[in-house]
Structure formats: structure tokens, C-alpha cells
Structures
1.
Amino acid sequence: MKTKLKLSPSAWVGAVMLGTFIVLGIIGPWIAPYDVASKAIDLDHKFEGMSAAHWFGTDSNGRDALSQLLFGARKALELSGIVVAITSVIGLSLGTIAGWYRGWIDEIVMRFVDMLLAFPGILLNIAIVATVANPGVGVVILALSANGWVGYARVARGQVLALREREFVTAAVALGASNTRVIGKHLLPNIMGPALVPMSFGLGSVILIEAALSFLGLGPQVDYTWGSMLDQARTFLWKGDWVKVYALVPGLAIMWVVLGANLLGDGLRDRFDPRNRGR
Amino acid sequence: MTLGRFLLRRLGSGLLTILGVSVLVFAFLHIVPGDPIDHLAGDNATPGQREALEKCLGLDKSLPMQFVSFLGHIVDGTLGSQCSGGAGDKRTVAGRIAEVFPYTLWLALAGMLVAIVLALPLGVLAAVKRGTWIDTLATTASLSAIAMPQMMFAPLLLFWFFLSLGWFPGPGEVGLHALVLPALAVGTHLMAMLSRMTRSTMVEVLGEDYVRTARAKGLPESRVLFVHALRNALLPVITVVGLQFGSMLSGAIVIENVFSRPGLGNTLLQGITERNYPVVQGCVLVIAVIYVLVNILVDLAYGFADPRIRRS
């Protein structure tokens, strides 16, 4: 079933914005003009403004802000990619199982979903990260995955509930297809499209929450994530004009990705869920 | 369904949520390895001090017993002792939270006020001027504001209005004047969401028959817009305002941190740095309870705002 993916212009803008981020995230560390490791510390050139040598200036240790931005893009891409992959697999599986088998499995899954939705997510993320003295990337991934799957589960369950009434599914069951076959052959291919919606929104929110965690000093102790760049900007607020550039560089980068993800997500939602059109 | 039964059912499911949240937080804090005593007691604590601290935190008991006493501290309203000033510290977590809670409440309320006051006119304007450059500008601005990280916006606000212009007090101040910048920072996101919401519901409502009737009656346009249309467009807006109150509280974590304001968020972060689990648990629990309560209130408000819902 090849249907052409018709999207609104703003969704295409979002897709391009997101695409830029993904490409820069992949090639970023290779095209970065300087290194960002601790051996790149150059105290003679700290707090510099924009210049030909350092397009976006340097940080409190004299490291190049542009390079930090590019290395940070790789970090953000890795983390959000992994979290979206984990949460979508968990969420789509649970949602599909809940919607297909119904009964007590459905009841339990949906109770969990309700509970996690009735609670500000970032609080749970913080509470989990807070349990470890020096949270590495793994803990942050775990924390973000703990409640990230909810959106996918809801979408998958809703789709499956609608699909199970359709003729082709009834026909497959009547022909004696096993549950695994129905799920694998008939249900999953049909929820992949709608699943793109929470994936797009999820990518943006993961980046935003991860940045908030490193900003609060709760993320991995790496000083070139976008969140810790923002943390540096606010720590040295009194440095004057330097702050404007050094805060805007990672801040606008986050905004770029989140805006792109939201625009694409809105467009995909209009495409797959006509009820929400115009919202 | 009567109002009483509705309330009872919602309170019941709210209670279940809160219980679930406390189990989750408790489990995470206790399953993950790492000894909180090391942190609280400091490096040169005597074994006796360590033992006393262990007792104060209840860590000498079995895990199920710890959970029972954790629940007990919720029921008796103390949320446990802090034990941060050594084992003799009898101040309760609830006391510490009650001290800072008003600051967070004011911040959240001020943020909502900023959001509503700015969002409603903006949304109505965008709806009335639908399809013009004003509409496009308003939409672009809202979408960008939704995507804008507070971690960038809040420090920049401080930079411009405190350091450069000196119009507002800086970090650490708590007066009314000092509330302006944090409220702006915490409210921007909600403002953007609300103005989009107002715009889309206003567009819908403006196409309704009763709006045409009101115009046909010769009512002044301002009356049609703000009395007939906006009143009905407000319903979904109320929901968003209510549902976002909880995220205002979590947004306050970043804002309180940037502005060094006392509050729930900063207490939570202090609890984390101190590795003081009772404080962390307490803050998370209090925010969860408020979140659940506000959700119930939103449902009630919905019923009052729309008679059709009340009757069904």
C-alpha cells in the first residue's frame, strides 16, 4: 500500500529544519573547526566575542563555541535518537498488545498510561536522574524512556481498536491467521504512519528535556551539550555582551530542532488524524 | 451522574494516581544503588553518627517497612524528617516545603496571569485578522515561543532587564517587583499555547449562527467579539490553562534556579544535591498532588462554564 505522503508546506519546512539538524548531528564533529576536549582549553582566549577565527566566540575556557555547538548536535542526536527508538518500540508494542488482546492487559497498560499522564513528566525524569550521584548518558536515557513511551502506546492502541473492526482483519482472523501473524502482517504496517506523529513531537521534547537536565546539572557531565552551554552562559551572566552570543547559540539551536519537530508533527497529525485538522 | 458521585470518582482515581506516583518515586530512590548516608553525613562522620543518621532516615529497616513508614509520613502530613542537620534534626520535610511553597504558588499564578492577559487579545486579533500578515506573524511568534527553551530566555531576560537596563531586581530578590521577570519567563510558553488555542476556537466560534445573529441584531462588533464569541471560545482555553498549571510548577524548577528564588523547584534541586531522599520524595509528591487536584478542578470548572456538560 503505497500512498503518497501529502504534507502541508509548514510540515515540509519542519522536515527540512529537522533534516538539517540530523545532517549536522552526523557530520558535526568532522566539520567542527576545533576540538572540544579538555586538551582544547585555551585560557588566553576565553570569553571572546564573534570573530573570523571563532565565529560564535569562545567559552569560559577558551574553547570554540561553534565547535561545541556541532559536537553538541551529535550528542543531542544520539540521545534523542536512542530515546525515540526505545520509547517507540516499547510504546507501540504495549499499545498494539493492549488494543488487540483487550481485557486485563489493556486495563493494566492504560492504568499506567493514565498515571504517567496525570503527572508532569520532567519531574519523574528529574526524580530518576536524581537517584544517581553521577548520571551518565545511560541514566538519562532510562529516565527519559520511563514515561516517553506513553504517547506511542496511546496512538497504537487507538489505531488497533479501529483496525480490528476492519474487514481485512476480520478476514485474516477467519482464515485462521495466528495473533502474531495478524499483529505483524496486518496491524503493525498500518500503525507505522500514525506512529510518525508522536515520533516527531517526541524528538523535540526529548531534546528540550535533556537540555533542561544538563542545564540543572543533572545530565551527563559533559560540557559541550547544548544544555551545559546554556548553563555556562547563565553562570557568567555578568560577562556582558559575551552572554548574548553564547546563550543564543545553543538556545536557538534547541529552538530550531523543537520548532522543526513540532511543525512536522503538526503536519503529520493533520495527515493521519483528520479530526485534529485545523487545530 | 450527580456532582457528588463525579467528585468521588475523580478523587478516587486521583488518589490512585498519587499512590502510583509515590510507589514509583520510592522504588526508584531505593532500587538504584548508592548510599545516601555517605553524602548526608559527610566524609569524616563517625560510625556512630552514620548509624544515627541511618536510623533517622529509617534506612535500618527492611524495604517493605520503609515503604510503610513512608506512607505513614504521608498520612500524618509530616512527609518524614529531613535529617539534614545530622540525626538530631527534627524539622520535617513538610515544614520545609510549606516555607517555600507560597513563593512557587505566586510565581505560577503570576505566570498564568501574564500568559492569559497577553494571549487572549493576541488570539482574538489573529482570529479576526485571519489570513493576513498579522495572523501569520502571531502564529509564527507563538510557534517559536513554544519551541524556545526557558534556559535561554530566562538568563537573557536577566541580562537585558536587570544587568543592562536595571529596570528590575536581579536574582535572589523576592518582592513583587522581582516577580515580574520570572513570571514573564515562566508564562511565555503557556501564553504561546493559549494564543494559538484562542485563535483556533475563535475562528470556529465566529462561524457559528449565533454570532451571525448577534451581528444581524446590529450589536457593536466589540460586543459580538468579546461577549458572544470569546465567552464560548474560552472553554477549551480554560482546560489548557488548568492542565498547564502542573507544567508551570515543573517549569518553575528551571526558573527558580535561574533567578535563585526560594520555592518548590529549588528545594527539590537542593534535596538532590544533598542526596536528601525524604526532601526529594516530598517535593515530587506535593507537585503530583497539586497537579491531580488542579485536573479535578478543571473538570468542575468545565461543568460550570458549559451547562451542556453539567447536565450530561
Note: The two ends of chain A are 28 Å apart (CA to CA).
2.
Amino acid sequence: MSQASPSAWARWWDSDLVHSFRHSPTAVVAALLALACVLAAVLAPWIAPHNPFDLATLELADSRLPPAWSAEGNPKYWLGTDDQGRDILSALMFGARISLLVGLSSVALSVLLGVSLGLWAGFWGGKWDALIMRTCDVMLSFPAILVALLIAGVGRALFPQAHEALAFGVLIASITLTGWVQYARTVRGSTLVERHKEYVQAARVTGVSPARIMRRHVLPNVMGPVLVLATIQVATAIITEATLSFLGVGAPPTSPSLGTLIRVGNDYLFSGEWWITIFPGLMLVLISLSVNLLGDWLRDALNPRLQ
Amino acid sequence: MNLKTSTPVWRLGTLAAVLALALPAAAVTLRIANQGDALSMDPHSLNESLQITVVENVYEPLIWRDDKFKLTPMLATSWKQTAPTVWRFELRKGVTFHDGTPFTADDVIFSYERAKGDGSDMKTYVGQIKEIKKLSDHSIDIITNQPFPILPEMITHWNIMSKKWCEENQATKPVDRRKGIENAASFRANGTGPFRLRERQPGVRTTFTRNGSYWGKIPTNVDEVIFTPIGNDATRVAAMLSGEVDVMEPVPVQDVERIKANAKLNVLQGPELRVIFLGMDQAREELLYSNVKGKNPFKDKRVRQAFYQAIDIETIKSRVMRGAATPTALMLTSQINGYAADLAKRLPYDPEASKKLLAEAGYPSGFEVKMNCPNDRYVNDAEICQAVAANLARVGVKINLEAETKGSYFPKILSRNTSFYMLGWTASTVDAHNVLYPILSSPGEGGRGQFNLGAYNNPKVDELTQQVASETDTKKRNALIRDAMKIHQDDIGHLPLHQQALNWAAKKNIQVVQLPDNGMPWKYIVVKP
């Protein structure tokens, strides 16, 4: 950013996208919320009151304390503690960290996989197209969560000695392998349209290699919808992660993600210890809602027909 | 026909009406929920309380414990000792298996061979039997290796299968989940018991119907039992509160008060004979799952004691178990024959002493080890393991906790594929020998040490156990038991945690017999209108 000049800043500030953002209160609020969640997650090791993953600091005697404002609450724990004496607020921040990490990396990987395959299928057509698109159809005919469960289950069976790091690997892989289909289909559709346009024909005639045409000419023109899709998919991936963890095949109990926290708290709903599950649930709603709203705004902003 | 009337609801109504007609008018259905499933219908495949109590509604042993937990004749009508090592058993006449085959001495001999053979989890109950001689179709001699006065107590969970049926169904060997061996006996059953297995859907539900041609008189008026595993605590409680199920166990400790407050429900509570403990691999030269290489830290008593003293059992009792547990220093409970009250004193909880011991043993900054734990077998099992992991973290030991469903847990730890594990043990014979022989003795022939999964080994304990088996003088015998228990306790062979309490829930109009070994014989269940 060494070359950034006031005029460049002004140009960026006045660009269509930023202009539309500034004039959409929903987008601004959503972005602020998302930013707050991301900051809380990223800075958790420095700003969280406790480190819930450090088992040595857990006080079992302080387990299941209600939030600080209720009669039996302890001011040490603002949002109360869970069944193992973890501070809920800290657990939320660290849990959101895992949820965001898994969500973002699985979306990045599925974009990479989906876009490459979609581009390949759309550009070459024929048997490649048939093979990749039929695979997509098969994947789409199963509910994503079922496929993710299957992959997570198989992954665990294949690596029974798995360490925690590998558990997250399996989690990310299972969400990636169910998420790429949407990108592949979107990109393939746009590529089919683009590859017959004059600029592609022109590039071909001048002898540009197919790989370069795909990368330099077609790709930039099909990325718009992918961007929108990816934003919305981040929320979906976070929810999928939470669901898998809720079902017990995701993050291990000793380093809980939001889904694990909700599952643990679920057992205590009947006995009136509501805070263990409600707060992680709210956090999940907050993250996915803000990301979804941002995605909606981005879709409208990039849609030429709405401008 | 007017298509509009053929809505799904209407069709469902017809279906219900047809089903209602198909069953006798007063058919009583009992719906039972448990946190886990019986992993197989094979009575010799897994020595686990839940599987035993479910399967024993279909299969029966020669001698059993009745609703008062007293020995009672089942497939044997009488037994007496004719010589120090010979027992004469008269078998019940006129009993047929569910497929109509009559029950004879051949079935007993076959079931003996099956239960002591490869893949059986019940070796420990028949391990002292040398051979069975057939005298006639309904009379046998059981010959033991040495004088064995507690033989009748020992065989109450050795269930009898039909020789003909097993041979016809290629099920002459037990189902062995450790090796992934399944056979017909896992999904179908042919016993002599008061209930027949109708349909088995593993992990989903299993239905049983009453055996109309049962040989005895039984109090129950239940015609059909639907057994459903519901793993999630909250879901199981919700099913009970909404009336979806009639009997449920266990009640999560946090929900006992809520269920007690419900006018339509009862909570049945009682002490359980089960002791929950942790075991450590003390046999291998190097642990399978640890960062310590070239040696096994658990071979060092100081390490075992450090683990013991690091565990804050009182806080686990008050916070995790909400008081529904009794911390214990021994591997058996006070109701068990041979319990020595003077030994019932735990080493104090003392993290500082624990750290010191670890440092002395050469692990000043602790070490890493994997812990295996079930999450649907014992009351709050995974929560206890998490609390123990947190306790151990305080003294520098990093636990990699693996908590999983018992369907994958038991095959793993029963094949000794573990370094540090949790197990619960009920001395089902109500005698200390059933702790000494399968848990404290070194692994060997005839089911000895079969559940000593960390292979704790002290020849003196083995020898004393041998003497306990044949000693007939109660006073001497109790002294021998005490000596063996003391040696094991001083060695810290296992880490005893607590005795858990039984918590069942049932609708108020249902009479259920709760046995202290967590047995729920359906033949004593009476549903009042």
C-alpha cells in the first residue's frame, strides 16, 4: 500500500461498491457485527478472561455457575460457567475462533476446488463436463450434512489414532467435499456462456494456451457470482461445522467449538441451566446472520440489473 | 373413490385401525429407553450389565437371582455337592426353546463349550468348570478344577442356548466384536425365557413379545416390549416427560428433581454394586499412546499414585455427579461379600504430593497419554473423564481424551488397545471372587484377568485368588480376600473412583423391580391400568 495516494483513496471511497455499502445501513451494521465477532475470535488469547482450553486452569468447583447478574453468579464469570467450570464468555471467544477457522478454510478450499473443476468442465465440455457434472448431481442428491457425516465418520475410522489437529482436518475436509459442488455448477454455467464470446475466440486465434485463457480471460469474468456464493457459504459452513460438532463427530470435547458448546449445554436445558447452551447459540446466530446479511448486500450490489 | 379423502392422515388412521384389530384388545406394550443399546443378542458375547439384563429376558441360566436378589432355580430344579469338586444338577423337564425344541442336558454342555471357547466374553463365569458329564437327559454332573464352593453364585449369568438352533444357524461360536465377528445369534435369538425376540434393529430399536408357552408362572402382564436406545440425555428425558416411553434409565443426575416433581412419574433410586475405576497399561514395555518412549511410566508405582492423588474425587462427586455417587477406595462395594471396611480409606487428594511423586519418578514436567472413555455407558462417564483430565493437567500430565460411544469403545479396550481407560465393574456374583478373578488377577487361562485390561500383575494376588476360590471356611476366606485386596490397594493396581447410584424413571402406574446389579427383569414388570 506504499503507493496509496489521497486520490486512490478517494477513488476507492467513491467506487460503486463502497458507495452502495455506505448507503446500506443493513450492510454497515452487519459488517460491524461480523467484525466484532471476528475480532473477539482472533484476539481471544489476549482479551478473553480465561483460556478454556488450558485444562489446568479449570475449577470444577466453579462449574455450572449462572451469569454474573443473577443471584448465585460470580463476577469472575460474566456469562456463567459450563459443566466443567469453563468460563462461557471465554469459551465463546475460543469456540468462535475454531468455528471461523473451520468455516473460512473449508470455504476457501471448496472455492478453489469448485472453481477449478467448474472452469475445466465448462471450458472443455464433452466427457470432462459429463463426468464432473454427474459427480455434482450425485453429491447434490444427498443432503450435505449426511455426506459430511459420512466423510467425518470414514475419516475417523481410517485414522483411529488421530490427534486433535487431525480431527479438525477431517472436519474441514468433510465440509469442503460437500461445499465445492455449488461453485462448480455456477462457474461451469458462466464459463459455457463466456467461452463462445469474441474475446475468448480472439485469444484462441492469437495462439494463447488454453490454460492461460482459462486463468487470465475466463476466470475474472466468472468470479462475481462466486464471491457472493462464497460469502453466504461461510455462514453455511459455520453452521455445518456446528451441526457436526453438535452430533459429536466434530471438534473434540476438550477444545470445544460453538457446536460442541451447544451440545454440552443441551443436556442441562431441562435442569434450568440455560446459559450453557443459549449463549453459544446466540453467538452462532450472530455470526451467521451478519455474514448472511453481508452476502445479501453483496449480491444486490454486484447485480447489474438492480443498479 | 374420492381422492380427497385419501389424505395421508386418513390413511394413517386406517392403518392404525387395522393394527388395533390385529392385536388382542388388551395388549399391553411397554416402551423402555436406555442411554445405549445392547450391542448384540448373543448371551456369550459381551459381559456388560445392560446386554446381560436385556438378553436374560430371552435366555435363561440354570440358576438365577430373583426379584429379592436371592438365588433361585431356573433351568435347574435342584443342585447339590456330591463330592468336593462334583455338583449334581437336576434339570427342569418340559421346557422348550422358542422354536419348540425341548431343553436337555446336551444344550447345557453345548452352552458350556460355547461360553468357555474362543471369542466368549463369559469365560470368567465358567472358567472354574473342568467338565460337564451327562447322566441322563435331565441330570448332569458339573466337575470343577478344585473345590469351588461359590459355583451356584458364579453361573447366574451363564445362559443356555439351543445346540440344534446354533448348529443350524452357524452360530456355534460367540459373536466377537473385538474381531468384528458377527453371526445369526447377534440378530436373532432362541432361548427359553419369558420373552421372544421379534425384531432387532441395532442402535434403533428392538422389540420383544411375550412367550405364550413359558414354563413358569410370571407376574408380568406385558405382551410386548419395545427397547429403544436414546443416547442424548435431554432427548431421553424429553421422551419420558412427554410419555413417549414408559420406563427409562439412567435419569441424568441433573434431571432427577425435575422428574420427581412430575405427578405422573416416579424415580427409582438405589445403590448400585458397580464401582467405576480407571485402569492403566502396566504390561507393555512402552505405552501405545504416550509421548514417553522406551519405557512405560505406569510400571512405576509412584506414577500410579501420582495419578490417584491428583484426582479430586469429592468435587467430582458434588459437581459432576451432584451427590449421586459414593467415592470408594476399594474395587468392590460394601454390599459385596468380602468387603473389608477397614481398607475403605482413599489416599488423600493432594496435587502437591502428586507433583512430587511424578518428579521422583523422573517426570518433573509430566507427560502425555491418551485416555479412552465411553460417553454412553456409565453415569456422566465422559464428564468424569474430562474432570480427571483437568485434574491431571494441574500436575502437568496432558491427557488426550477420546470419548466415544460404547459400540466402538468396548471392542477397542477389551482387545487391550489402550493405555489409560475407564471401566465400571459389578461383582455380579455378589462375591469378591468376581472382582479378584476377572479384574485383579493377571490375564491367563479360563477367563482369569479377562477384564484386567491394563494387565496389572502380582503373583501373590493370583495365589490368594486361587485360595479364595476353594476355601470353604467363611472367616478364613474373608481374611484371604482382605489380604489380596490390601496388596492390590498398596500396589495401586487400579484407580477406584466411586460407586454410582441407580436412577431409573417409570410411570407411576408401572411396577418395576430394580436389582442392585442394575438388572431390570421384565418378567416382574406389572402395568396397572
Note: Confidence is low (pLDDT under 50) at residues 1-10 of chain B.
3.
Amino acid sequence: MKRLVPTAEMTLGPFFPPEFAAGANDLAAGVQGEAIEISGRVVQADGRSLDNVVLEIWQADAEGRFDNPAFSGWGRAATDSSGIYVFRTIRPGAIQGRAPHINFLLLYSGLMRQLQTVMYFDDSPDPLLESMTERSERLVAKQEGANRYRFDIRLRGEGETPFFDD
Amino acid sequence: MVYGVNDMASAVPAYIVPRRDPRTQSEGVVEGYAQTALRWPAQPLARRAHGPSELTRPRLAPRLKASGANLAGQGGTRALGQLIDVRVSVVDEDGAPLTGAMVEIWHCNAAGKYIHPNDSNDAPADLNFYGAARLITDRDGRIDLRTVKPGAYPVPDSGGWWRPPHIHFSVWGRVWLSRLVTQMFFPGEPLNERDAILNAVRDPQARGRCIARFVPQGGNALVYEYDLVVRGRNAAAELP
């Protein structure tokens, strides 16, 4: 069968429309499960916080299902001028041999294509987390309260967040 | 390490997202684009197997709503600039059209000014132009956008780099890994030859596909065609 070449991804640029990112960061409203808040700061190599970085997430529901019509599982946030993003969602369940996790996708000026990473809640056994060996701790969020987690992202440099090719 | 997804032998080929080709997909630090050296990871990107978490389809509704397909307005509230129609087709790597796919579109006005408050370019706003739309592909994977042709603009602190006229596109494919965010360029623009973003795509044919095709027509708008190919094949296969 013929195969078309995927269109080249290009940078999001700095001017992603504000209303595209607004109001899409709350996945928890009216959904069954343990409501949680995930926030973090996105910084570049010199430590500067980045404004209007777009983060998208995709996660399973509380039972570890991706096909629950009552839970969209997808959300989007943009960082503010302090580099901070916030998601409100529910804690996902474990999924077919994997620990609970949330997929993150980053889009921004200076990134020629999307970056993918994964957030875990603790160091429960997970084949992907274990494959990251010494860098795996950067993928585990810090718990800051009963239902609050901190997941900072450093794009480049000392303490860089691990990213995945796909 | 495929997380048990393909453990059961099946006659149906699995849905797959082939790896990116560095000739047709730019990444890393790009010459002439200083921010890439501050933002692209220094460590190599890790490889991973694809399972349900990566190969399921995000449900965007109800969070994202579609808008109208005319950014140019009409009559007394028509935006300044050259009317254009952009006919967009969205397919996967097998050429199969994506029905009901969400497509986000944004671009600057005819003077080169974005609606975003962070745009410091000294160019006038156009009160009749709001450069953002969200459309859904029809059963043939198509959308039609009526708008005005965006202007070129200088990139601040870049030593004289001007972005050629371009339109930003964001589309969701069949699965999480099919996400595509890119830019569409216009044919015959001299700035295309020196744009750091367009020319970071090394393969000339792949680069050429980022430039829309002009379609001579008799109407009051210039018509362009543009194809978006999202990652992934074997759409008929069962998703994990």
C-alpha cells in the first residue's frame, strides 16, 4: 500500500490564541473519581520561566479506561507569565500493566515539533518508568497536599525533564 | 515491551504510528532560530513502545467547540487584505480521509499583527479581523476556510529575520501520537527561501508540501489547496 509522508510538524510560535487555551484545563467537573490538581512551572535552559507554553494531557479514567464516554481524558493549559500551568482532573487508574500516569504534550516557540513526556504519581512499578533508570525521578510528581501535585518541566539543561521520541 | 497489547496474534494488522524521518521532520537546535538552543532538550529523546496510553483517541468534546469558517467577514465589517479560500484535506499515512477531525487555525492580519497581546510588532490591528478558527472536517476529511491573506512580519531580536506569510494549523489525528501542529506557507513568496522554520525541513519535497497550491479560479477570492497528513496507518485495525 502506498504510504504518505506525514506533514512536517512546525513550531507553535509565541502567539497561540488565548481563547484556544482558556477553559480547557478542568477535566474533573462532574466526573467520578478522586479530584486532583496538577501544577508546575515550565522553564528553559537558562532557568527563565516561559509564557504561553501550551501543554496538553491525555489520561485514563479512575478505572484505567480510555473509552469512558463520561470522561474526556483530554485537557489543555497554557502557562501564565510566571511559567505556571494548572490542570484540574481526576487521579487515573492503573492501565494494563502500567502504573497510573498522565501523558503530557508540549508545544511552544523554539520547539520545532511537539515534545512528549509522562507524569507519574509515585514510583510504583511501570515498564516505561523503569526504562528511564537514573532519570526516572524527574517523571514522578511531588505531592504537595492531599490532592495536589507539582510537576515542573525543564526543557533543557541541568535537571532536564526526560522526553520521549514518540 | 509492548505492555501486552500485541500479545494476542491477530489477522488484523495493529494500528501503528511509524517513527519520524529526520529528513522530513525537523527537530533540535536550528541555525538562525536562537530559541531552539534554549528549549530543545539536550538529552536524546527516549524511545518507548506504544500501547493503549499512546494509541487511543482523545475526546476533545465537550471542551473544544467549533467556530465559523469565515474569518474575513463581509460588507462593512470585512477585514482588510486579500480574500483567500483555503481548501484543506486531512488524511492519514494511508491516504484515508479523517472524518470529524478538529482543526484549529490561527494567523496574523494582513499587516502582520496577531491578536495575541504578546505580539509587540509595530503593525496596526484590524478591528474586523480575529485570526482564530476551529473547524471540523467533513466526511471526506475536508474543511474550507475563508479568510484574508496574512502579512509578513519581523521576528524581534533576530537580526533581520522576517516570517513569510503563513497560517498555523493544529489537528488531532486518530490517536494521541497523531497530533499535528504545523504552518502553511504561500507559493512564490521570496521570504520562503530564507525562513529558518520552513527550511529546517531538509527534504525538498517535504518542504514543498508545506506550501499551499494556488488554484486559478474566477471568483473574488484567491484559492489555495493544502493537504495535512497526520501520523499513523491501518485505521481499520482495532485500536488497543
Note: The first helix of chain A runs from residue 18 to 21.
4.
Amino acid sequence: MNRLGIILAVLSIVALAVMGLSLGLGSVALSLGDLWAVVTGGGEPLQRTLILELRLPRTLAAFATGGLLAVAGALMQVLLRNPLADPYVLGISGGAAVGALLSMLAGLATALVSGAAFAGALLSTLLVFGLAHGTGSWTPVRLLLTGVVVAAGWGALISFILAVSPGAQLPGMLYWLMGDLSHASHPGPALIVLLVVVLMAWPLGRSLNVLARGSLQAAALGVSVRPLEWTVYLLAAALTASAVTLAGTVGFVGLIVPHMLRLVLGNDQRIILPASALAGGILLTLADTLARTVIAPQQLPVGVITAMLGVPVFLYLLHRSR
Amino acid sequence: MPAVRPVTAPPALPPWVAAWAMLCLLALPAGVLGEIRVTDDAGRDIRLAGPAQRVVSLSPHLTEILFHVGAGAQVVGTVSFSDFPEAAARIPVVGSAGQLDLERILALEPDLVVAWQSGNPARQVTRLEQLGLTVYYSEPRRLADLADTLEQLATLTGLPESGAARAEALRQGVLELTRQYAHRPSVPLFYQIWDRPLMTINDEHIIGELIGLCGGHNLFGELPALVPRLGRESVLAADPEVIVGGGSGEDNRAWVEDWRRWQGLTAVQRDNLFFIPPSLIQRQTPRILEGAALLCEQLELARQRRPESGQ
């Protein structure tokens, strides 16, 4: 417990530092003094607008999205007993993408695009849940295969929508698919979902540790496996749906953050879950700061940076684990 | 930050005094000093207390139009690819048309933002409005809209007379081409706007209008999409008399030359493979008149190459 406290304290300090960096850096240069003046309630109107209305919501949205995806990834990896599982592997992001792209094609307003993304994620979750439930015996492999096939179906629909959409719509759609935080202006609900789900999943940590060793062992040790697995599935789905609704399909955070933490901290879900929330947030906040500034005034979608950081790190981890 | 200001005020005179003086000078000939009102292409009322002195343009074609009406010095921010005229390339860039850097736009403190309705991300432009900026939406679909856009942007920047003159020149130019070519024998053609995937335009597109005024007949003009994607087979089946194309560069004829692989095509047999520099025809700017003139001449050449014209 003491170890957990230290880990979380360190990660929290790093998180605050990264958020400060994200608020201070942008395509318009502001000094630390300006930042401090705005944070303490002063500053010029322009600086207040830049920091409070543009950078702050975006920083919080990046942190929330990263945290949501990392925790969802950690849960999926335990649920499916598969190190390559990520929040999107069961098709939730595909459903959300189809919802979002269809509403963009119809020219709907911003809020409705987010709503359609959430509806798509929900639909996909229920579809996979219903199909994997089936009649016969149930295994993680069955859930994984159902999810992967449903995801492939969504992928085909996404390609179809992209093929028939007018050229003017394509950049917006591609940015959504690559993950983009430039529109995220209301991070509040996502932060609440993150907090609530982490608090709900934490007590399950001990059971999850047993589950990670296989369902037979877990059952033998008195864990009621099936209810636990469905709870984990629904929690991960809620996290993923919130994340893609806020920022589109940001890649790799959900895959690599839990793995990095397991390598450093060991595979104890009671530590991994809350630590993932903070470490995922840190990584994505940092990536988004780079996305905004690295070739400013051109803006990159954050997914580009996370994948560019994520691919080599993941390959390294994979190589090392051999 | 190298902000472009039209007047460099001496230290004793604050910049706003200079701006005010200039505003008076500009407004005096019109006889009215006060509110400017126009209706933009989104149908919204745009009101300014005086001529816009710090304009951010969110599309290359709008930058070009602003320079064309003489408001180039008032443009303080553009997006990438704003390369015409040369002076436009020296203005600070605030992102690309498809992804804007809102911070830089705010930091320039513009009094007018001219946005491209179908090209800029709607969410980002809405955000700019929420943050208190005045946004003019432009969406010229036809040549007549383009002339209106010239007038409106000139009015907003305090140059209504220049705008009226430029718009009149554009309308006259279109009228002359129409008078000269629209009644000529129809030329069935295929316009290639992109190569892979192969794309054309329909009659609703502004290029479709140019084809009409040159007396051409767009073989794919009836298709429902504004920019339809085609298979090569359908072009071969339609057997156009003329193939006109842009290219991925200002002097890249590779796309149209590629059709020579099919010697059976009428357009290939008569050597009617024509190239028009994309910046002359694919940007909604007054330079489109040059592109139109080129297209009309090419179609006229195709008519001369007909066997029955008895060369």
C-alpha cells in the first residue's frame, strides 16, 4: 500500500509538471510570468483567452483521453489474457468511427458528431456482448474473435464511407480517425468517467490478478469468473467509448502504457490500474503538446505523435521480452 | 512578430490614431463614415464598425482575392499554399486550410476572419466565432458568386470602388467569352481533375460552368457527385473528343499524356489532350478567367481538327 502511495505521488507530480508544460507551450510564445499571471487570475485578455479557453480544455482533454485509453487497455489485456489487446481490438472504436463519419457526412453539428460516436461505440459494445454471449460455452478467445470480426466489419464500413464522401469532408474525417484533440473543449465528463471507473475497478484488483493467471485457477481460488469478466468488459467499454467520443481514435496509448508499467512496476493490477490512468494521461498530454508545437503553425493530429513514439517503444519491449 | 501594418506611426502617435486617420481617408470619398454591412455566402449578416485593417484569410483563394481588390496590405495572416501574388507568400501562416492554429489566429488580433466554408474545419471556425472574432464565410460556387465575393471582400476592407471595378471586369470577361464561344458547335469532353483515383467534375462545379461557356459538353456532367470518381473504362466507353486535365504541378502534363496508351480514343487520334495549369482553373479566383480563355481556345482548336472542318 505504501509502495502504491509513492508510485502515485511520483506520477501525480510528473502529471502536474507535464500539464504545466502543455499550458506554457504553444505556437504563441508565452513566458512563465505570463502563465503565472493568468493562473492567479490576472494577465492580458489575449493571454487569458489563449490559456484558459484554448490550452486548458485541450490539456485536460488530452490527459483524460490518455488515462481512459491506458486503463481500458490494461483491463482488456487482463480480460483477454493477450498482451496485444488494446482498447480498440473488440471493435468499439470502429463502431464509434462509423457513427462519427456518418454524422460528418450528413453535415451534423459538432455535438451531434460526438453523440453519434458514443452511440456507435455503445452499439458495437452491445453487439459484441450479445454475439459472444451466444449459447454455448464462453471463453476469452470467443470474445476476442467476435470482437475482431465485428471490428473488421466496421473497418469495411469506414472504407466505404471514405470512398463515397465528397473531397471537402475527407480531411476532417481522416483527422478524426487519426485521433485529434483540437476540437475537444469539454473534458469534464471524460475526467469524471475516468475517476469513477478507476475507483470501481480498484477493488477488483486482487481478483484480476488471479484472473490474469487463467480462468481455471481463478475459479479454483473462489473468483466468480463470468460476472467478473463481463464487469471488466463493460468498464473497459465505457472508458473506450468516452475516449473516442472526446478525441477520435488515438492509437497506441492503450497498448503500450500498461506494458511499460508492467515492466517497471510488476504485474499487480491494484497498482497497474491507477498508475495507468496517470501515465496514460502524461504520455498523451506530452504527445499533444508536441503535436501542437513541433511544426507549428501546422497542426498534427495527436495520433501521429503517439504512434511515432509508440511503435519504437513497443518494438523495443517486444524485443526485450524475448 | 512581423505584423504587417499599413501605416508606421511616429512614436508620439499611437497606432490606433494612424489607423483612424487612414480609415477616415478611405471612407471620405464614399461620403459615409460608419458601419459596414454585407451578407456572406452562409447567408449571415456581417457588420463591422469600420473597414477591416487586420484580416486573416483561411484559404489560398481568399488571400488571392484580397490582393486582387487591393487589400493585400491589410492581410496579417494566411494559410499554407497562399503563394499568389508573391507578396502573399511573405505573410505569417496560421496553419493549413484543413487544420488551423487557433492560437496564432487569436494572437494576430484580427478584426475580420475570412473563412472557406467547405474547406475549413467547421468546428474550428465556429470556435473562432465563440471567442469573439468576426467571421465572413465564402463559398463561391459559380462565376457570378465569385464576382459578388470580390465586391463583398472589397467592401469589408474599405475598398468598395476597387471591388466594383474588379467585379465588373470579371463579369465583362465572362460575358465576352460566352458571346464568342457558347454558341459554337458542342465539343464532348472529359475533364480530369485528379489522376489516382481518377476524378472528374460535374456540371454543378465551377469548372463545369467554364466548360459550358466555352461550348463544351461535359460527358460526366450529369453525375450526382460534385467531384465524381470514375473508372478508366467509363472514360474509354464515353470516348471524349477532348481530354482536359490539370496536374499535380503547374507544368506536369503526365496525367493527360497517359491517355496515349489508348490509341483508339478520338481525343488521342486527333491529339486533343490539353493541359491547363491547376492554379488557373482549380482555384476560385479571378485568374479563373485566364483558365477559361485557355480552355475556350483549346476547344476551338479541337473544332478545327475535326475531319469535316476540311483542313
Note: Chain B has two domains: 16-169, 182-309.
